[in-house]
Fold these 2 entries.
Entry 1:
Amino acid sequence: MDQANRLRDIVKQRDSQLGLGKEPITARVITVTSGKGGVGKSNLTLNLAIQLRKLDKRVVIIDADLGLANIEVLTGIIPRYNFGDVVNAKMSLTAALTEGPMGIKFLSGGAGLTALANLNERQIATVINSFGKLDEISDIILIDTGAGISRNVINYVKASSETILLVTPEPTSIADAYAIMKAARKESDVIPILKIVVNLVNHYMEGIDIFERLNKVAEQFLSIQLQRLGIIPTDSCMVRAVKRQEPLATCFPTSEAMKSIENISLRLLNMEPKYNLNYTGITSFMNRLVSNFRA
Ligand SMILES: Nc1ncnc2c1ncn2[C@@H]1O[C@H](COP(=O)(O)OP(=O)(O)OP(=O)(O)O)[C@@H](O)[C@H]1O
Ligand SMILES: [Mg+2]
């Protein structure tokens, strides 16, 4: 039996033990990724989590970036435990969670997550069972991944039923996003649901244009229909929030970038976006001009 089949058996066994055979109540798992690094994944994940929390959703972030522990850096909160402690069966996954801002929780993944590949069957069963607990305590699980088409990142995209793919107007970002879509499409039995967020745009139409271009090639060459989840402007408030190690959602809740993230949270819940955003108008220009001077 290959590893994938063994995993499926373990999950089935767990579901039947929990009486979840028919209609399991499960959390939505959404992977946040990008082709190119440094395009705003961790900031989007964190602020989206807070926004979803404000909409009464219970949210857990899994920080799956193997490099810098992003969520820790952005919140200034140092977790006591990480995923490695769960793998070593020292503690349950829920006990390893860290309380983040505004009632969100996060799990520091670190190198523990790649170690999944090298676990024996008993350890895998322990880990999967402990993850099962997350279904009970959360509605939405956001996974903040590293960038790039590494095996590691593609594994997350393949495993989750929803993926948010971030792009920016930079040509390399678009090309790298396409590479991710291609890899995900090639390796998946089902057509992946990819929700696109264009970040760091100067005006709204720039974001629309990038989405349309990406969607066209995705349809033409990969038969994937992309969903446009949101467009986030370049906003100096974001830079200031990062410097302060405080989420944008708490220090600049009415900033332009935060309004876009609020719209994204509503769209994810199939609700009407609250703001009619168009970054071309003079008010929006003045907003950005003033905040740029104050940055
Ligand atoms: N909308 C925005 N406006 C202005 N600056 C932004 C915006 N989004 C992100 N940034 C800047 O980009 C930097 C990188 O953001 P972030 O750490 O979220 O990216 P990432 O994709 O998670 O990076 P990595 O691939 O290294 O994990 C931030 O520190 C911030 O300065
Ligand atoms: Mg990051």
Entry 2:
Amino acid sequence: MTIPTELLSKIDDVITHYPVSKRSAVLPLLHLLQHHFGYITDEGITWVAAKLELEPMQVMEVVTFYPGFRQAAPGKFHIRVCRTLSCAMAGSFELMDNLCQLTGIDRSHTDHHHSIAVSPDGKFSIEFAECLASCGTAPVCMFNDDFFEGVSADKAKALVADYGSK
Ligand code: FES
């Protein structure tokens, strides 16, 4: 695993925010790695452990405890569907089913520790997310960093067609 210089600078800067114990930087470091690589590999876990003078098992425990960390590669476009109350009441579970059908994704093997599912062509992956802070425009979802509100069945279809052509 190669850590680009820019990412390494960010990591070293984050560690300075924890002068008492750099071990406390484990969460932000994992977030930085996931944001850059898309998921956390075994190699990434070993690297973070060495960087923070932790045992790899200690880092692994953090990764497996928080469902927000992914241990499998996402698709080119990673979709997050909010499932918290306002969105659930506005149809986010139907939206999830709809998006899975449109992208050919099978979520039957997902669980708490393996929350993402990937389309057969690797173009899309999907997972539920907790409140994305736009409850008044439910249901909402994200395609990578792009945010979409009031996602109807027609809008979902248009989004998959649009991103699928990229
Ligand atoms: S409940 Fe979905 S954005 Fe808050």
